[in-house]
Amino acid sequence: MTEPSVSGRSELPVRDDLRGKTPYGAPQIADVIQLNVNENPYPPPPALLADLQRALGEPGLALNRYPDRDAVQLRTSLAWYLSDRTGVALSMEQLWAANGSNEVLQQVLQAFGGPGRVALGFEPSYSMHPILAAGTGTQWVGVPRAADFTLSAEAAVAAVQEHRPDVVFVTTPNNPTGTVTPLDVVAAVCEVAPGMVVVDEAYAEFASGPSATTLLAEHPRLIVSRTMSKAFALAGARVGYLAASADVVDALRLVRLPYHLSAITQVVARIALARMTELLETVEWVKRQRDRMVTEIGQLGLTVVPTDANFLLFGPFDEPALVWQALLDRGVLVRDVSSGAGLAGWLRVNAGTPAETTAFLSALEEVVKR
Ligand SMILES: Cc1ncc(COP(=O)(O)O)c(C=O)c1O
């Protein structure tokens, strides 16, 4: 048997269904104001870093040992946080955590999607959902949202009844549009979905409405996924989690890698949850800058899609790529989402610190008035 050639990328024996696909790729550019990946602009407070340093020196955190495979202490803290936050009593057995909600969602597709199965989402939405579907061999069905990016119960139910997906994704607030999907729409989807329903609440802390956790008791196939990357300002720590029935969590343990969540990750997340009040203070600061962006972008004669997240969609532009470049030339990096389905002409920006927001708004004014 001859070994497959590795001389050229195109000659590698990559799976046929992955050929020609593009990896996820938001630009990472240093020395500019980064408002393109919906991060929280405030770094963790020094007290959190001091706690972490202390914890790293404790004998309990022996790095020669594997971490707790089931992250029980972290899941207990997450259950406490989410119960407190959403008013729904949740137990440790109903929580699951992984390296970012991306990994949580991947595990959901490994367990409930896969070859011969279908996942469905309402687009435009988070671009990783179809990428994770592709990676797990799950067929992807993208159903368009209304022109104003909302999702009605009628449209959602009709799509689910037509395609009979094994996994349905509803992102609320939706990325990249910021749009909220009311809980009655989620409930209507749960009523008719033949498989799992995943409500991706990555931006829930910035939103005013109730969480889909309030529907968990009635809908045993519902999964609510969350992240510490946004409101908790911990994107670099990679901590995502979900709430679901204990049976769903059990199923995920079949596909997770052993010791998938490092001891360091678990301890950072627990320290952050213990300092929750301090960290979540930034949510109000970020929302203030977001609201300022909504007002001031509107004053430039542009449209802003109604948002309940830490980012917003603005435009529409005849040549969004040129506007994106002109903003970058002025030191501000936003997200050009305009090549996505249904997104022609739009750019996305997340709220920054007051100084970053000012820099963005000044740059945009200059570009628009040019
Ligand atoms: C809707 C949505 N879900 C999930 C994620 C993944 O976040 P993380 O893997 O950092 O938890 C993101 C990140 O931008 C997102 O926008």
Give a description of the structure.
Helix 1 packs across helix 8 and helix 5 (153-163) runs parallel beside helix 6 (183-192). The protein contains 11 helices and 13 strands. By secondary structure, the chain is α/β, with parallel strands linked by helices. The radius of gyration is 21 Å and the shape is globular. Bound molecules: pyridoxal-5'-phosphate. Pyridoxal-5'-phosphate binds at residues 38, 100-102, 126, 171, 175, 200, 202, 227, 229, 235, 240.
Short note summarizing the structure:
This protein is an alpha/beta fold and 370 residues long. The protein is built from eleven helices and 13 strands.
Number of strands: 13
Overall pLDDT, averaged?
95
User: What is the helix/strand order?
Assistant: EHHEHEHEHEHEEEHHHEEHEEEH
Q: Characterize the largest beta sheet: strand count, sense, and whether it forms a barrel.
A: 7 strands, mixed
Estimated structural class:
alpha/beta
Strand order of the largest sheet: 2-8-7-6-5-3-4
- List the uncertain runs: 1-8
The set of bound ligands, ions and cofactors reads: pyridoxal-5'-phosphate
Q: What portion of residues is helical?
A: 25-40%
Given the C-alpha coordinates, what overall shape results? globular
Distance between the termini: 64 Å
Radius of gyration: 21 Å
Number of helices: 11
Proportion in β-strands: 5-15%
Detail the topology: elements first, then pairings:
Blueprint lengths: L32 E2 L11 H11 L15 H15 L8 E4 L1 H13 L5 E6 L4 H8 L3 E6 L8 H11 L3 E5 L11 H10 L3 E5 L21 E6 L12 E4 L2 H7 L10 H12 L1 H24 L3 E2 L6 E5 L4 H10 L2 E2 L1 E2 L10 E4 L3 H16 L1
Parallel strand pairs: 1-11, 3-4, 3-5, 5-6, 6-7
Antiparallel strand pairs: 2-8, 7-8, 9-10, 10-13, 12-13
Helix pairs in contact: 1-8, 2-8, 3-4, 5-6, 9-11
Pyridoxal-5'-phosphate binds next to helix 3.
